[in-house]
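Journal club prep — side note

Before the paper discussion, L.F. wants everyone to see what a predicted structure for a comparable chain looks like in token form. Sequence:
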Amino acid sequence: MDFELSEDQRAFADTARQFAQAELAPHAAQWDAEAIFPREAIAKAGELGFCGLYAPESIGGLALPRLDATLVFEELAAVDPSTTAFITIHNMATWMLGTWGQDEVRATWGEALTSGQKLASYCLTEPGSGSDAASIKTRAELVGGEYVINGGKAFISGAGATDVLVLMARTGDGQSGAAGISAFAVPADAAGIHYGKKEEKMGWNSQPTRQISFDNVRIPANHLLGREGEGFKIAMKGLDGGRINIATCSVGAAQGALGHAQRYMQERKQFGKPIASFQALQFKLADMATELVAARQMVRLAAAKLDAGARDASTYCAMAKRFATDAGFNIVNEALQLHGGYGYIREYPLERLLRDARVHQILEGTNEIMRVIIGRRMLDGDAPDVIR
């Protein structure tokens, strides 16, 4: 077992770090304060391949392992978790379209998405269907050579500012459950699509969040991704990777916060000496660093399991998401505490990192649902010997 990164992996991380410092760091606070969606910066990320990190090469993606993608996302999130989180969502939707899309859809959208010239939103959650994703009610009915879509989605990142929607809708009857869900690529400007008001959020302010309603929206039948009834399977495959992505954003936010805290402790003086000289604060920094390394290694383990197609990859992804998002938020919170009153004001980035990291414990499946997934697996007879 080799925990060291390869030369190529280090190069990806270094490139992402340089990009984050040059293109995100100077603007992240303004994007947050003014709720600006930085399409131009995201397009520049696309020029480096960051908008199609694990999308198929056939649509211009890099087809990287999920482990390698975490290295890029962590470096970006250390500066701007909100913008990075949107980039991860775009990567997930682009991978779905590139993996399951039919030829015409892939030709129309593929390279535009992997290059960052066009952007994608992922539409699963509904106003009455969050953790229980199999109960979605948005319907898609095949009429002639078209699907007619009716229903609504909620909490959609990028909604109203993106170009294509990867949508989960019910094609089976109301009792069909997960087996009746299908996936579609829907042009974001199709007739009958209406966007709600931009939600005012605690964090993630550099990406818009809106509800979307679908009123007799018509799309060609070839916009179906995969086959009818495969949508829930596609969604769950996407969420395994999505959970790693969001966990990585928490690791990145924590890494950024730890760096700020370490520098501040050496600069800030109280009682005639730097606060770094106080052992109680040294212990706090030690615990933060230990938790961060543990979270990072758990995320990388889950990514490696997903890359290998391991039987229990979903369990490891749930574990990584639960642990890293909880630990990441706590580390950022401790870093803010070390800054005292300065951590609470917007002149310093700690309060923004804290607000952005908080939602990671909710989305891509709440951490309570992660415990349900893990707990059910751990009740299987072989689990204590297999899940290690």
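L.F.'s comment for the group: The chain has a mean pLDDT of 96. Keep this in mind when we get to the figures.
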